[in-house]
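Fill in residues.
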C-alpha cells in the first residue's frame, strides 16, 4: 500500500496553492491569445459549445487521472510512471509516457517563450503609445517589424526565458508557490477590469452574442478536432505538468474537487478573455476572424483608437505576460525534477541546463518567422511558419494527445480500480466514479485516436 507515499521533492502549502498553481499552468497564451482567435476563425458560439463539451467529457476526466497519477507516484513523471507500473504489476515501459511528457514540455517551452516574448515587447510598445496612430496599417506593421527581426525576437525570448528560470530555480515553495500567489490574482484582477471596460466602452452585446449564440452551420469537422486539441493544450494535459503539480499535492486533498476547480477556472478565464476582446474589436468595426493576429494586430488598433487605450492596452499585455509566465514555469518543471531525481543534479544546475537548452531550441522558432521561414501543407491547411508550425503540430496534435491517450489507457485498463478508488477517496458505487472510468476506458481513447490520425493526415476531413 503506497497511497500515502511522501513527496520527496516538496509539497504545496494547501489545496488552494495547488489550485492556483495548476490554474496558473492551464491559463496562458492558450486562453488569451489562442482561444479567442480560434473561436473567431471557427464562427464563435457553436465552436465554443463544442469546446465546452470537450472540456467536460475529455479534459476533466484526464485532469483528474493525471493529478491522481502524480500524487500516487510522488516523483517526476518518468519515475512516477515506472513506480506505478511496478505497483500495478504491468510493464515498466510505461515510464516512456513520462518521458514523452518531459520531452513535450521541453519542446513547447522553447516556442512558448518566443510568443510570450512578443507579449513582453508589446507591454513596452503599448506604454510608449505606439498604437495611437491614424493609419491602422502602421499599427499592424509593428507586428511585422517585430517578427521579421530575428535579433528583436531573440532579445524578448531571452528576457522571458530568464524570467522563467528565475522562478523555478527557487524551488517549489519560495519559487513557484510565491510566483503563482502573486501573479494569478494580479492577472485575474486585470482581466476583470478589462471586461468591465469592454462592457462600457465596447459593443458588449455583439461580443457576447458572438461567443454564445450557436450557429451550427459554421461548424466543420476540422473545427471539432481543433476544439479537442485545444481542450488538451489549454488544460496543460498529457505532458506531465499537471502530474508534477499533483505530485506536490498533500495527501488529504480531494483530487476530484481540485480537478474540477482548475478546469472551471481555466474555462471561465478563456470566456472572460473573449468577453474582454470581442466587444473592443467590434466597436471599432474590426474583424473577429483575423486569426493569430487578433491579439497582436487587431486589438492594438482598437487600443490606439479608444479612450484610455494606452493604459488598457498596457494592462492587457501585462496580463498576457503574467498568464504565460505561470504556464512556462509548469512546462519546464517536469524536466527539471527529472534531472534532479533521476540524474542526481542540484536544482541550480538542472535549471541552468534546461534553461540554456530550451533557449537554444527557441532559436529555431525565432528564425521560423524570418530567415528560415518556409511554407508547407498539413492536413489540408497551408502553414507558413516552417519549423515553428512543425514543433507546434508535433506537440499539440501528436505528443499531448498521445500522452492523454496513454494516461486514459493506463488508468482505465492497467491500474486496478482498488488503487484509483483509494487515491480518489471514492467507492465503486459512486456514479461519478463509474462515469469517469467509462469515459477513460472507451470514449477518450477513441476520440484521441481520431485526433492523431487526423494529425498524421490519415483521416482527411472536409473543412
Ligand atoms: N495551458 C497553457 C496555455 O493554455 O497557454 C499551455 C501549456 C502549459 C500547455 C503547460 C501544456 C503544459 F503542460
Amino acid at each position: 500500500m503506497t497511497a500515502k507515499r511522501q513527496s520527496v521533492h516538496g509539497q504545496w502549502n494547501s489545496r488552494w496553492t495547488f489550485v492556483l498553481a495548476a490554474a496558473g499552468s492551464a491559463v496562458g497564451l492558450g486562453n488569451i491569445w489562442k482561444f479567442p482567435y480560434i473561436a473567431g476563425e471557427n464562427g464563435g458560439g457553436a465552436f465554443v459549445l463544442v469546446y465546452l463539451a470537450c472540456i467536460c467529457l475529455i479534459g476533466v476526466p484526464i485532469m483528474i487521472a493525471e493529478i491522481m497519477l502524480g500524487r500516487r507516484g510522488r516523483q517526476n513523471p518518468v519515475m512516477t510512471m515506472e513506480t506505478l507500473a511496478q505497483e500495478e504489476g504491468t510493464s515498466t515501459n510505461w515510464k516512456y509516457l513520462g518521458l514523452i511528457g518531459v520531452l513535450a514540455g521541453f519542446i513547447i517551452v522553447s516556442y512558448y517563450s518566443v510568443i510570450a516574448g512578443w507579449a513582453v515587447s508589446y507591454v513596452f510598445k503599448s506604454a510608449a503609445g505606439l498604437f495611437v496612430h491614424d493609419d491602422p496599417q502602421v499599427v499592424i506593421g509593428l507586428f511585422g517589424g517585430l517578427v521579421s527581426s530575428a535579433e528583436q525576437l531573440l532579445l524578448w525570448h531571452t528576457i522571458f526565458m530568464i524570467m522563467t528560470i528565475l522562478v523555478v530555480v527557487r524551488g517549489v515553495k519560495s519559487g513557484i508557490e510565491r510566483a503563482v500567489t502573486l501573479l494569478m490574482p494580479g492577472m485575474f484582477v486585470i482581466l476583470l477590469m478589462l471586461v468591465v471596460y469592454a462592457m462600457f466602452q465596447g459593443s458588449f452585446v455583439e461580443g457576447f452574442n458572438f461567443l454564445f449564440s450557436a450557429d451550427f452551420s459554421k461548424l466543420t469537422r476540422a473545427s471539432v478536432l481543433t476544439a479537442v486539441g485545444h481542450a488538451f493544450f489549454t488544460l496543460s494535459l498529457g505532458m506531465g505538468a499537471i502530474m508534477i503539480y499533483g505530485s506536490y499535492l498533500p495527501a488529504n486533498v480531494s483530487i476530484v474537487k481540485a480537478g474540477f476547480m482548475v478546469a472551471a477556472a481555466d474555462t471561465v478565464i478563456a470566456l472572460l478573455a473573449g468577453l474582454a476582446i470581442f466587444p473592443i474589436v467590434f466597436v471599432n468595426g474590426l474583424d473577429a476572424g483575423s486569426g493569430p493576429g487578433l491579439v497582436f494586430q487587431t486589438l492594438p488598433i482598437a487600443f490606439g483608437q479608444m479612450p484610455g487605450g494606452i493604459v488598457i492596452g498596457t494592462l492587457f499585455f501585462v496580463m498576457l505576460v503574467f498568464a504565460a509566465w505561470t504556464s512556462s514555469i509548469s512546462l519546464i518543471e517536469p524536466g527539471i525534477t527529472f534531472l534532479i531525481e533521476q540524474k542526481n543534479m542540484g536544482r541550480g544546475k538542472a535549471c541552468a541546463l534546461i534553461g540554456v537548452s530550451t533557449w537554444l531550441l527557441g532559436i529555431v522558432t525565432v528564425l521560423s518567422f524570418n530567415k528560415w521561414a518556409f511554407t508547407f501543407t498539413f492536413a489540408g491547411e497551408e502553414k507558413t511558419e516552417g519549423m515553428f508550425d512543425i514543433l507546434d503540430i508535433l506537440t499539440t496534435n501528436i505528443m499531448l494527445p498521445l500522452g492523454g491517450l496513454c494516461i486514459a489507457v493506463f488508468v482505465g485498463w492497467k491500474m486496478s480500480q482498488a488503487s484509483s478508488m483509494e487515491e480518489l477517496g471514492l467507492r465503486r458505487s459512486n456514479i461519478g466514479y463509474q462515469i469517469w472510468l467509462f469515459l477513460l476506458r472507451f470514449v477518450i481513447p477513441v476520440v484521441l485516436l481520431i485526433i492523431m490520425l487526423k494529425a498524421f493526415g490519415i483521416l482527411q476531413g472536409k473543412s
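The longest helix spans residues 309-342.
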